[in-house]
Write a structure and sequence with these properties.
Chain A is α/β, with parallel strands linked by helices and 400 residues long. Chain A contains 8 helices and 23 strands. Chain A has 3 domains: 116 residues, FAD/NAD(P)-binding domain; 143 residues, 3-Layer(bba) Sandwich (FAD/NAD(P)-binding domain); 60 residues, no CATH class. The longest helix of chain B is centred in the middle third of the chain and has 17 residues. The chains are: A alpha/beta (400), B mainly alpha (102).
Chain lengths: 400, 102
C-alpha cells in the first residue's frame, strides 16, 4: 500500500524504494473470521504478494534480524544489511499464547485461535463435528487486532450452531477484560443488547491469569473461574518480535508514534502505519488505509524539509457481522465514538450505522473485492475520505 | 468541612480534567468512591508511580507499564485495585482514562 502510493509520488531518479517482507503471501486477515464457519476456505484468504507490487520497487523476501535506527540500517537474518534514508514500519501485531499460562497445553486440542490461518482452519474442523457444551471465547488483554472480531465470532457461532441444529446444546460465553461488549459506550450498549437477544452470556472485567486444561477452567486475577468445554482464545497481542529485538517498542512491542503525524516519537525518519503503531485507535485494516494519506503526505513534506501539516484523526470503519446475513457498520475516530445514522451519504446510505441490516452484510462481503482490487494499490474508495465525517451521524447522549 | 472534591473538575467519564488539581486528600476521597476505604503503602507506591509516569508522558500508564515500573505482580495489583486496576489507579491518581482502552 505504502510502496504503491510512494512510487507514484516520488521521483524515480531520486528515490529508490525497497520492500522488506518475510512473507510471499498476502493474507486477507478480515477473512480469517469466516474460516471457522466454513464460509471461506483457507485458500480464499491468501494471494501472492507479487501480484500487488508496483513496478520500480525492489523486493526482498526474508526475515529481518534487527533495525538500527541510530545507524539508519536494517540487518536481515542472513546477515545482509540495507541502509535507508526513510523507513516505514508496517510490522503489524501477532498473537502470543505463551503469555498466558496453560493455553499451550490445550492448544489446538480444545483451545483454539482464529487469528492465524492454521488456527482458523483447525477450529473449523473441530466445530463441524462438535456435539455441544460450553463454548467460551476469551480476550486475554487489550489492545487486540480488530476489537469487534470476538463479537462477530460469537454472533456467527450462534447462527452456525443453529444451522447445525445443535444451538440448544451449546452455551455461548464471552469473557472479556472490557467493562461491556465493546470499548465505546453507545456502541457497547447497542451490541450488548444484541448479545443478550442471541442468548450469549457476557462476563465483563474478566482479566485472565491462567487456563487450567486439567479442570477445563480459565481463572482471572481476582480468582473468578469460567469453565469451558472448548475455549477460543484471543491471546495477548504484541508488536512484531523484530521491534522488541530492536528496542523500538513499548511494553507490548508497539512503536511509540505521534498519533497525529504518524512519525515515530523518537526518530524523525521513521514513520509507522497500521497495528505496529501505539496510537489509541482500533488495530484494524480500515485504520491502516485511512492512515496512508496522512503518512504519505507528511513523509513527503518531511523529505522536502517542509512542515508536516496532515493530521490523522484516528478514523476507523468496521463492519460487524451479526449472523443470519446481517451486519452492523460503525464509523468513529479518536474523539467521536460510533453513532447511529447512514453511511457514507447522509440519509441515503446505503449502509446503516450502528444498526443491523442485510445491506451492511453485503458491504462486508463486497469489501473483500475492494480490498484486493483498490486498497492494496494504495487507492481510495470514492465517497469515503481519510478523515471521519460527521454528516449522516446522529449525536447520542452517552449512557452514564 | 467542604469535601476535597468540591472544586475539582471531572470529565464525562469521571476522570479528573486537570491533573494539577490533584492532592493526596483528593486521592483518598476518589479511592473511597471506588470502594477502597484505606490506602496502604502498597497502594501509594503504585499511585506515586502513576503520578510520576503521568508527569513524564502526559497520560496514564498501562497495566504492563505499572507492573514493569513498580515490580508489583499483576496478581497483587488486582488484589489492591480490584477489577480494572489500570483504570482505577488512573482515576485515583488524577490522570485521564488510559489510552489503551480502544
Amino acid at each position: 500500500m505504502v510502496a504503491n502510493r510512494m512510487r507514484s509520488t516520488l521521483d524515480r531518479r531520486e528515490w529508490r524504494i525497497v520492500i522488506l517482507d518475510r512473507d510471499e503471501g498476502h493474507y486477507y486477515q478480515p477473512g480469517f473470521l469466516f474460516v471457522p464457519f466454513g464460509i471461506y476456505g483457507p485458500r480464499d484468504v491468501v494471494k501472492p504478494k507479487r501480484n500487488f507490487l508496483p513496478r520500480g520497487v525492489d523486493v526482498v523476501f526474508g526475515d529481518v534480524e534487527r533495525v538500527e535506527p541510530e545507524k539508519n540500517r536494517v540487518t536481515l537474518a542472513d546477515g545482509k544489511t540495507i541502509d535507508y534514508d526513510y523507513l516505514v514500519v508496517a510490522t503489524g501485531s501477532e498473537i502470543h499464547p505463551d503469555e498466558t499460562p496453560g493455553l499451550r497445553e490445550g492448544w489446538q486440542r480444545n483451545i483454539f485461535d482464529f487469528y492465524t490461518p492454521a488456527g482458523a482452519a483447525n477450529l473449523h474442523q473441530f466445530m463441524s463435528t462438535w456435539q455441544g457444551g460450553r463454548f467460551v471465547l476469551n480476550v486475554a488483554e487489550m489492545p487486540i487486532k480488530c476489537p469487534v472480531a470476538p463479537l462477530e465470532f460469537l454472533m456467527l457461532a450462534d447462527w452456525y450452531f443453529q444451522t447445525r441444529g445443535i444451538r440448544d446444546k451449546v452455551e455461548l460465553i464471552y469473557a472479556t477484560p472490557l467493562p461491556g461488549a465493546f470499548t465505546k459506550p453507545v456502541c457497547s450498549t447497542m451490541l450488548g443488547s444484541v448479545l443478550t437477544r442471541k442468548n450469549i452470556t457476557v462476563h465483563p472485567e474478566f482479566n485472565i491469569m491462567e487456563a487450567d486444561p486439567q479442570t477445563q477452567v480459565i481463572r482471572s486475577y481476582d480468582d473468578i473461574e469460567v469453565p469451558y468445554d472448548v475455549l477460543v482464545s484471543i491471546p495477548v497481542n504484541r508488536g512484531a518480535d523484530v521491534i522488541m529485538r530492536s528496542g523500538m517498542g513499548d511494553a507490548l512491542g508497539f512503536i511509540p508514534t505521534n498519533k497525529y503525524t504518524l512519525q515515530s516519537d523518537k526518530w524523525q525518519n521513521i514513520f509507522v502505519i497500521g497495528d505496529a503503531a501505539n496510537v489509541p485507535t482500533s488495530k484494524a485494516g480500515s485504520v491502516a488505509h485511512f492512515m496512508l494519506d496522512i503518512l504519505a503526505e507528511n513523509m513527503t513534506s518531511h523529505m522536502k524539509g517542509r512542515e508536516m501539516r496532515a493530521r490523522f484523526d484516528g478514523h476507523a470503519n468496521c463492519y460487524i457481522e451479526t449472523g443470519f446475513g446481517k451486519a452492523v457498520l460503525i464509523d468513529f475516530n479518536y474523539d467521536v465514538e460510533p453513532l447511529p445514522g447512514m453511511f457514507p451519504l447522509p440519509g441515503v446510505g446505503p449502509f446503516t450505522l450502528l444498526g443491523e441490516s442485510v445491506v451492511n452484510h453485503w458491504g462486508k462481503l463486497a469489501f473483500k473485492w475492494i480490498y484486493w482490487n483498490i486498497l492494496l494499490e494504495g487507492r481510495d474508495i470514492p465517497t469515503v475520505p481519510s478523515h471521519m465525517s460527521m454528516s449522516g451521524k446522529q449525536p447520542v447522549a452517552a449512557p452514564v | 468541612m467542604a469535601s476535597p472534591l468540591s472544586a475539582v473538575r471531572f470529565d464525562a467519564e469521571g476522570f479528573m480534567a486537570d491533573r494539577s488539581q490533584w492532592t493526596r486528600g483528593i486521592a483518598e476521597e476518589l479511592a473511597r468512591q471506588e470502594g477502597l476505604d484505606t490506602l496502604t503503602d502498597r497502594h501509594w507506591a503504585i499511585i506515586d508511580f502513576c503520578r510520576k509516569a503521568g508527569d513524564q508522558t502526559g497520560h496514564a500508564p498501562t497495566l504492563r507499564e505499572i507492573t514493569g515500573g513498580t515490580g508489583i505482580t499483576t496478581k497483587e495489583l488486582f488484589g489492591l485495585f480490584p477489577k480494572g486496576p489500570a483504570k482505577k489507579v488512573a482515576k485515583i491518581a488524577g490522570l485521564g482514562k488510559p489510552e489503551g482502552c480502544v
